[in-house]
Design goal:
The structure holds three protein chains of three kinds. Chain A is mainly alpha-helical. Chain A is built from four helices and no strands. Chain A has one domain. Chain A is 86% helix and 0% strand. The C terminus of chain A is likely disordered. Chain B has two domains: 69 residues, no CATH class; 112 residues, Alpha-Beta Plaits (2-Layer Sandwich), CATH 3.30.70.100. Chain B contains seven helices and four strands. In chain B, strands 2-3-1-4 form a four-stranded antiparallel sheet, covered by helices on one side. In chain B, helix 2 crosses helix 3 and helix 5 packs antiparallel against helix 7. Chain C is mainly α. Chain C has five helices and no strands. The chains are: A mainly alpha, B alpha+beta, C mainly alpha. Chains in contact: A-B, A-C.
Chain lengths: 119, 199, 92
């Protein structure tokens, strides 16, 4: 009885983690520029990995391996955002352009500028 | 004041006679390291524990040499409140789940995305507080720390709602309260850039 | 339960392969690095799942931890390298 509840919780957690990671992967493909993609990689992926590893730890039960998995969770939660922050900072210092939401007023300004330059 | 700080730094880096950390802290560090070793090895006979003790001593020796080189104010005593830290970690986990839901919504309807750059000042009492704040900003809804210089932060935010919640400064207040009793103003001079003409 | 682990491992492999599109098509080098980092982070989970498949979980969880550390250090080293590279700025 206890065993089956444990397995059920583990299955739910693992599947949830997989779905979250799938959303993160789609985000890395779909979002418009590098800085918005870092959001998908840093938040959605980190949460997905944490949920997945936690599900594996629940499946293991109270053993030494579950302790190692908890340590892995802490490590991923600390290092994944830091690594992506350093990559984003490198991109900023490199001078990578930031994507802004296309806005009608800016488009008009652009059009006016274009006219002024051509005239 | 600056001059005295500089003198202090020169004297500590020159003759390497910095004050040794208190014994309680050294013992705590060694205990944590030994616990991690036992967790990883999983064998509790004399040989493996002996190897572990040797490794822990070696790592602590390395850390003594490294600690004074890396962080400027690593020797400023860090007062942590375990209860508040636990409450903060719980709150942070909840924020992480909220944040991944929000980013997922943006991923599936890209017209929601409205990126903005935010700069603000947030005086934090300790280097560790800065690290905690930067990491927390990255993990919470739609915001990502791009750069930290002194007490100035540059943050990229993904959507309207996350920009507003960052400028309100709930998180900065919480982090500052982790490390000091009554913190100074947690957010100052918040500025939002939202198009290529303002940067 | 065996079938469940096989299925989830295959699903995870598919999820890991998706960002490969960004590695191939990414307009800048940072997009490629970001996608590689995301793939590496998910591989930590994959290595743990292999442990269940081969019934040697105690061994594979250590490999996963070592992989996590290597992924972190490697990502930081490459990011540092590109933050100082000025010649690439003119090329892209």
């Amino acid at each position: 009885m206890m065993e089956s509840i444990q397995n059920g919780v583990a299955v739910i957690l693992v599947v949830t983690g997989l779905i979250t990671m799938l959303i993160g992967s789609i985000g890395i493909i779909r979002l418009p520029d590098f800085y918005t993609r870092t959001h998908a990689a840093s938040k959605v992926d980190t949460v997905g990995i944490i949920i997945l590893l936690f599900g594996l730890a629940v499946f293991e039960g109270w053993t030494l391996n579950a302790g190692k998995l908890v340590l892995a969770i802490v490590f991923v939660a600390l290092t994944n955002p830091v690594a992506i922050h350093i990559l984003a900072r490198a991109a900023l210092r490199f001078g990578l352009r930031i994507w802004w939401k296309p806005d009608s007023s800016h488009l008009q300004e652009d059009a006016a500028k274009g006219k002024g330059e051509s005239a | 004041m600056n001059v005295t700080l500089l003198m202090h730094e020169i004297s500590t880096t020159d003759n390497r006679s910095h004050a040794s950390p208190p014994w309680s802290r050294t013992l705590f560090q060694g205990g944590i390291l030994l616990l991690v070793w036992l967790l990883f090895s999983g064998k509790f006979d004399a040989f493996h524990i002996g190897t572990g003790v040797a490794a822990v001593l070696f790592v602590m020796w390395l850390d003594r040499r490294l600690g004074s080189a890396c962080l400027d104010d690593a020797r400023v005593p860090l007062k942590l409140r375990p209860l508040r830290l636990a409450a903060y970690l719980g709150w942070l986990m909840w924020q992480m789940i909220l944040s991944s839901i929000e980013v997922a919504r943006v991923i599936f309807s890209p017209e929601r995305a409205n990126p903005a750059l935010i700069t603000f000042r947030s005086p934090q009492p300790h280097v560790v507080a800065k690290v905690v704040l930067g990491n927390s900003i990255t993990l919470t809804p739609g915001t990502l720390t791009l750069d930290i210089e002194g007490d100035r932060y540059l943050v990229h935010s993904l959507s309207e709602a996350s920009t507003n919640s960052l400028v309100e400064g709930t998180m900065q207040r919480k982090v500052a309260r982790l490390f000091s009793e009554d913190p100074a103003e947690p957010v100052r001079e918040a500025t939002i850039f939202r198009s290529r003409f303002t940067l | 339960m065996e079938l469940f682990w096989v299925g989830t491992t295959v699903a995870l492999v598919v999820i890991i392969l998706i960002p490969l599109y960004r590695v191939a098509a990414g307009p800048t080098v940072f997009d490629r690095l970001l996608a590689i980092g995301a793939m590496g982070a998910k591989t930590i989970g994959l290595v743990c799942m292999f442990g269940f498949l081969y019934h040697r979980f105690d061994m594979f969880v250590d490999i996963a931890l070592a992989y996590a550390i290597l992924n972190f250090i490697g990502g930081i080293a490459v990011a540092k390298y590109f933050s100082f590279s000025k010649t690439l700025r003119e090329k892209s």
